[in-house]
Design goal:
The structure is a homodimer.
Chain A: H1 3-17, E1 24-29, E2 32-38, H2 41-44, H3 51-59, H4 64-67, E3 70-74, H5 80-89, E4 93-96, H6 106-111, E5 115-118, H7 122-134, H8 136-142
Parallel strand pairs in A: 3-4, 4-5
Antiparallel strand pairs in A: 1-2, 1-3
Helix pairs in contact in A: 1-7, 7-8
């Protein structure tokens, strides 16, 4: 796990320790982390702060040119909302910890020219597998499934 | 303008009064507004709280079944991020104030089975036209354009 995915994974772990959904993310611009974050559904009662969204939010406001030179790291394949945020800001590359436990809108991202690197990292997989087994209802709420 | 688009429009006007980007939204479940909100980029330094996202956030956490019986009202055509949120939660219908000043990811929404009703409301158009003319840089930042 490289430095940036480790930051995303640490965020995911922090989310779990807070009683939340263990998905973390970091927005990296030219080798510098602009923002990192984790899913806040439980902690803030949030319907929009998935890990990727929290990282974007914590990174603050930027001009389009910054996003277009950035890479988004996330422990889990990005859902449709987070994929849409990646497309809105024209982020050209996403490094994904794993897509075994959930596959988001990867086809759309690729179709729109976003480069995806999928690590299938054993720690990311183990974290989500344990969470989904322990809290299936919370997980289904987070991904908009009955 | 019906009751719910009026709520979205009032939110947009409130955003303008706060010095922000005048886009508003309301999430409506079986005729009841669950949440309403407006773009908070300027007010909160937010990269993710577009009008639609703010309405979803203010509506709070819900099970998938609630979203699937809801209609999202928004004064402006939803950008890719907000379109992604609509897809994540399976919101079946979006009523759009106008798409003259900006057209979001309507093709993707329709392709995924979301019903769109576009009003081309003169007040919504006038509000955005005046804002874009006055603050083109802020507007470009909000939609991820250089």
């Amino acid at each position: 796990m490289d430095h940036f995915m480790k930051a995303a994974y640490e965020e995911a772990r922090r989310g779990l320790e807070e009683g939340g959904i263990p998905i973390g993310s970091a927005l990296v611009h030219r080798g510098v982390i602009l923002g990192r974050g984790h899913n806040r559904r439980v902690q803030l009662g949030s319907a929009v702060l998935h890990g990727e969204m929290d990282a974007l939010e914590n990174a603050g406001r930027h001009e389009a040119s910054v996003y277009r030179e950035s890479v988004l790291y996330t422990t889990l394949s990005p859902c449709p909302m987070c994929s849409g945020a990646i497309l809105l800001y024209g982020i050209p590359k996403v490094v994904i910890g794993e897509n075994r436990t959930f596959q988001g809108d990867e086809a759309l991202l690729r179709q729109r020219g976003v480069e995806l690197e999928i690590l299938q990292d054993p720690q990311c997989i183990a974290l989500m597998e344990a969470f989904i087994a322990a809290s299936p209802e919370l997980w289904h709420e987070d991904i908009g499934q009955v």
